[in-house]
UniProtKB/TrEMBL annotation:
Function: Metal-dependent phosphatase that shows phosphatase activity against several substrates, including fructose-1-phosphate and fructose-6-phosphate. Its preference for fructose-1-phosphate, a strong glycating agent that causes DNA damage rather than a canonical yeast metabolite, suggests a damage-control function in hexose phosphate metabolism.
Top-level taxon in the UniProt lineage: Eukaryota
Domains: entry comment: Subfamily III proteins have a conserved RTxK motif about 40-50 residues from the C-terminus; the threonine may be replaced by serine or cysteine.
Official protein name in the record: Sugar phosphate phosphatase
Enzyme class: hydrolase
Organism: Helicostylum pulchrum
EC number of the protein: 3.1.3.-
Pfam family, one: ARMT1-like_dom
Damage-control phosphatase ARMT1-like metal-binding domain: residues covered: 21-342
The keyword Metal-binding is annotated on this UniProt entry: yes
Known catalytic reactions: beta-D-fructose 6-phosphate = dihydroxyacetone + D-glyceraldehyde 3-phosphate; beta-D-fructose 1-phosphate + H2O = D-fructose + phosphate
Required co-factors: Mn(2+); Ni(2+)
Length: 368
């Protein structure tokens, strides 16, 4: 693990982490979490040291191409949106909430790292927004704290809600659908999107990807298969995305990034390594951590017994200071916590380890 050799704001910190925790370790014997993060920082170093390519995102084309492939679900969701944001009873709000959380959860299954193993049908099934298909997918959620989160949201009025984002393209599009609904239902008055600072795990969101996603949605030639949609479909998408741009303009939607999200450390270190971020995020009423990597960092990427309570796995600093975090994660790596004894026995008897722990078919929704 050679020191990083460039002059960025995070260079010193990266090299301190290598020296303090991983001196002498190599690609072959270091820890998976740190090494996998390190490889993305080394990639960034190549571009930072170039004369003309220093802000080049070598994954941008792949990110946009994959988003194009999600056109059907993009238009389906945009057409559904007007009816989801009408004023409605508390009871109906709860139903919509449950659907949107699921859409947002499964959006995480369709990131670039898994797409290579999936057929077009697999992807469409995961992106489906019909009620029956969502109900069907509930069987694949091994820990489901959506009800606990609703208890929190039910009484929330005009709060601040943070997303610690994961992938761009379809995943962040559905994150925006949820964010929009939270603002329209007045549960939130401010949404903060926390992005990565460098090209990260191929498809993660950087700040520049947000306005680009909005522009792509508004570009009539961006999505393929024009013949499959009506003028109404196009209008619904344009109205919704212009509303999103409006949120940015009026400050209801803030797009931020912080170097801490692109270190190789677990979030157990957030308080000591990034105290200003830690204290700032404490002001949020709810923090939504998206995806597998965020989950791994929350639970220290440890081989916990799978019945370890989520609260214990995220460590005392997080657990005691953030009684308002939720993770929406499809399982793409070994660490799993929070299972009941019953679910553990059940899943171990009917699925292989690969299937339920890292194929992306199963998921956990865990709340502290
Ligand atoms: O995009 P997500 O959901 O954070 O997934 C990232 C995951 O993909 C992998 O790179 C490969 O499975 C994992 O090491 C990593 O945790």
């Amino acid at each position: 693990m050679l020191p990083i050799q460039d002059n960025q704001a995070d260079t010193k910190t990266w090299n301190e982490h290598i020296k303090k925790y991983f001196e002498g370790s190599t690609w072959f014997n270091g820890t998976w979490l740190f090494n996998e993060c390190y490889i993305y920082r080394r990639l960034a170093e190549i571009f930072f040291n170039s004369k003309y390519w220093f802000d080049y995102d070598c994954f941008e084309r792949q990110k946009n191409d994959t988003f194009k492939g999600s056109h059907q679900a993009v238009f389906d969701l945009a057409s559904k949106m007007p009816e989801l944001i009408l004023p409605m009873s508390e009871e109906k709000l709860e139903i919509v909430y449950h659907e949107l959380i699921q859409v947002c959860l499964w959006g995480n299954a369709t990131d670039l790292s898994l797409l290579t193993n999936m057929t077009q049908e697999d992807i469409q099934r995961l992106q489906a927004i019909e009620k029956d298909l969502l109900a069907e997918r509930r069987k694949f959620i091994l820990v489901d704290d959506t009800e606990k989160l609703w208890e929190k949201l039910r009484s929330l009025q005009g709060g601040r809600i943070d997303f610690v984002l994961d992938n761009s393209g379809f995943e962040v599009y559905v994150d925006m659908i949820l964010a929009d609904w939270l603002l329209q239902s007045k549960k939130a008055s401010k949404i903060v999107l926390n992005c990565k600072t460098i090209p990260w795990f191929v498809s993660d969101v950087m700040p520049k990807d947000m306005p680009m996603m909005f522009e792509n949605c508004l570009d009539p030639d961006f999505f393929p298969a024009k013949e499959t949609r009506t003028q109404q479909d196009v209008d619904d998408l344009v109205i919704m995305v212009k509303r999103w741009q409006g949120y940015v303009a009026n400050g209801q939607l803030e797009i931020r990034s912080h170097d801490f999200w692109c270190t190789g450390l677990s979030y157990w270190y957030m308080e000591s390594e990034a105290p200003e971020l830690f204290n700032e995020m404490k002001q949020s009423d709810l923090v939504i951590y998206k995806g597998d990597l965020n989950f791994r960092k929350l639970v220290f990427d440890c081989d916990w017994p799978v019945t370890t309570p989520f609260k214990d796995a995220i460590g005392p600093s997080m657990a005691n200071n953030f009684t308002n975090i939720i993770t929406l994660r499809t399982n793409k790596a070994d660490p799993v916590v929070g299972l009941s004894e019953e679910t553990k026995l059940d899943i171990e008897s009917r699925a292989t380890r690969e299937e339920w722990r890292f194929s992306g078919k199963y998921a956990v929704v865990e709340y502290n």
